[in-house]
Amino acid sequence: MEVLSPEMFTLIRFAIVFPILLIGLWWKEKSIAIEKRDIPRLIIVSLVGISIYQTLFMVSIHNTSATNSSLMIALSPIFTGILSIAGGKEKFTWRVQAGSLLAFLGAAAVIGMGNEGFAFRSNHLYGDLIGLIAALFWGWYPILAEPLVKKYSSLRVTAWSSGIAAALLVPINMTQLLTTSWHWSAGVWGSLLYAAIPVTVYGLVVWYYGVSKIGPTKVMVYMYMVPLVAILIAAVVLHESLNLLQGLGGIVILLGITVVKWEGKTKVSHSIAK
């Protein structure tokens, strides 16, 4: 964030990802084709879930605290549930909604009870608002993507959405692309490559696979694991201290996810019985 604009970071990240995924797609499936009738949806998915969401998320981080931004993004599974029900994609069930809310409260405890804590100040308001809008777009994203990942492999959808998203960001980054020196530190390149390879090449492909198998609402609830995993890694790698409330928050996250997942198993069992 000290070297690159949010738009430029997102563009370079997905420009790195696109050829890697395309080569992997050809090697695995011996085809990279997408039917013409699916291209408009693929463009919308790329625009909403990558070009817009990823850029807004980086803008939010740049303009508010990491804690506040994390909390805003943690609202995205709730938006997914609301939009899925409103669009007739899923039926309303109290168990799923209660489990999602429970997991969110646990995530809020994990995020907010750390060393930094929440800081809702006037100078953070813009970043907080952008984070909230980003959460709405990320919540909408799996709903838009679901028809594609049920028709094509998660690898194919991720590959093409990454390439399209990068292309959509080229016009607004043209000046930076022509003027940047590209002589960045190892830390900047390391950050870009980390965001590109494990987070996107692996993470996004697996995430799309989950959407195709269990639906957007049940996949999104696993986002609440992110802050829990983050504090555990920070404790091991950075030797940061954990407190009791964060531990309890982690237990509540796992409980909420279990409630949502258990409801899914119940539905499957009923389907088999019929």
Structural write-up:
This protein is mainly alpha-helical. It has one domain. The chain has helices spanning about 5-30, 40-65, 65-75, 75-85, 95-110, 125-150, 155-170, 175-180, 185-215, 215-220, 225-235, 245-274. Helix 3 runs antiparallel to helix 5. It is globular.
Observed structural traits:
274 residues; mainly alpha; globular; disordered C terminus
Poorly predicted regions are 263-274
Count of folded domains:
1
Number of helices: 12
N-end to C-end Cα span: 54 Å
SSE diagram, text form:
Layout (H helix, E strand, L loop, with lengths): L5 H24 L9 H25 L2 H8 L2 H11 L7 H19 L12 H27 L2 H16 L4 H6 L6 H29 L1 H5 L4 H13 L6 H30 L1
Helix pairs in contact: 1-2, 1-7, 1-9, 2-6, 2-7, 3-5, 3-6, 4-6, 5-12, 6-9, 7-9
Tell me briefly what this model is:
The protein is mainly alpha-helical. The chain is built from 12 helices and no strands.
